[in-house]
Amino acid sequence: MAKMRMTPTWLAALDWDANGEWNDLQQPGLVLRVRQGRASWFVRYLFRGEARRFRLGAYPDLGLATARKLAAGARGRAAMGDDPQSGKRADREAARQRRIGDTTSRVIKAWMDDPRHGPTALWKDGLAGGTARGFLPHIRRLDRELGPRLLADLGPREVERFVSAPVAAPSRNRALSSIRILLGWARRKGLIEADPTAGLRKEREEERTRVLSDPEIRTLIQGFDASRYGRAVRLLFLTGLRRDEVLGMRWGWLDLDAGVLVIPPEAEKSGRRRGELRRVAISAAAAQILAEARSALFAEGVRSEFVFATQTGARPHPDALKPILYTLRGRRANGLPPSKDKRAKERPAVLADDVTIHDIRRTVANALLNRLQVSPWIVDHVVLGHARPKLLRTYMPTLPLAEAREGLQRWAELLEVINGSEAVGQRPSAEAVMTAVEGSGA
């Protein structure tokens, strides 16, 4: 560190690209520091035998004469037992207390708006991707239920009550992960001091193997046919796609002439680690459903990039199918048990209460494998679209879409037979179903 008798002429001739520090010979303790083209004044002093440094301000906003006066005043305060840094420390603590006083709603908004560490920057495809669709419903519920509360006042009991509200274990685990992401960001920003989720653990999720029976398949298809999303549910049965992949499907992904659907990585569950584009075979029956969906949108006067757009042309909400499913289960549209009021309209249950939309995907895979004897490899990697190992992507880069399309078309014809059965007790035998499928030219 060089010592220099500083003058205005010396300061004007200083090379601002040369990093360094200079001590003023006229005023003891006054330091000029230059870093990356910016200059700042500091004062060095002793307080209770400890060497300290205090920033006075930036040059040239703070001139040489003023910096010398402030340096002399700071060293005089230190000699009298008053630390010059105490004021700044108090200001920082007051600012921290103001931040800690933020409500949960304000913290959620600040986290969402953070361009570097918020969800728009860290989640794949930002607020439009699959991660957001999985986590944001829980964040919005947190805002609704605990938004007015101070975030720093949320204790383990309130957080545990929030996490345990969903019925299913996977939803509870996702709620815990969602709130942990938010609280982790808040801790890094100094908004909270302790993590109230520290004692909570994720639950073990049981593997679900539920496959729909033929009557349940028929009930689902016919129950949704009367709604706006009847064709979407039929396409789920015809392709084995995930619910979000169908509801978020765009016309630009489709090549109906080639019978191929290409799903971009940000729109599917395993897109981040897949290593290749997700290509889906479209059977003739599925292509017919898509053509009908386009005609229906044209008839409504809706122009949208989404295949199953709402009346405003927007993407359907991820939970758009739930009200109809709840009704088929005999519940109210919001999922609550039926009202006990005698004036309430009775909703007889026509589906078991444990039937979910994702069961369709499992049912399609099971039917292709066990009822139509389609190769397990085709079912797993082509129809279901599970990510392939790198070795297979390297040595078998082309997927057998034609074989998958043939199997899906045979399944579509079998599905017509299932859907045409009139009564549960009159379901045809497996042999009769296969005879009907083979007789149709599959």
Can you characterise this structure?
By secondary structure, the chain is of the alpha+beta class. The protein contains 19 helices and eight strands. It has helices at residues 8-12, 64-79, 86-100, 104-113, 119-122, 130-146, 156-163, 169-188, 214-225, 230-239, 243-247, 271-274, 284-300, 322-328, 358-371, 376-383, 390-395, 401-420, 430-439, and strands spanning 2-4, 20-24, 30-35, 38-47, 50-59, 254-255, 260-263, 278-281. A five-stranded mixed beta sheet has the order 1-2-3-4-5, covered by helices on one side. Helix 6 (130-146) crosses helix 8 (169-188), helix 10 runs parallel beside helix 15 and helix 16 (376-383) crosses helix 18. The chain starts with a strand and ends with a helix. Mean pLDDT is 85; it is low at 421-442.
Question: What share of residues are in beta strands?
Answer: 5-15%
CATH H-level homologous superfamily name of the largest domain: Intergrase catalytic core
* Class by SSE composition: alpha+beta
Strands of the biggest beta sheet: in what spatial order?
Answer: 1-2-3-4-5
Indicate the CATH topology of the largest domain. Answer: hpI Integrase, Chain A
Q: Note the total helix count.
A: 19
Alpha carbon gyration radius: 33 Å
The CATH architecture name of the largest domain reads Orthogonal Bundle
Largest sheet entry: 5 strands, mixed
The CATH class of the largest domain is Mainly Alpha
| End-to-end CA span | 87 Å
Counting DSSP E segments of at least 2 residues, the number of strands comes to 8
Spans of at least 5 consecutive residues with low confidence: 421-442
Order of helix and strand elements from N to C terminus = EHEEEEHHHHHHHHHHEEHEHHHHHHH
Overall, the morphology is elongated
Mean pLDDT: 85
The quaternary state of the protein chains shown equals single chain
Helix content: 40-55%
Q: Any idea how many domains?
A: 3
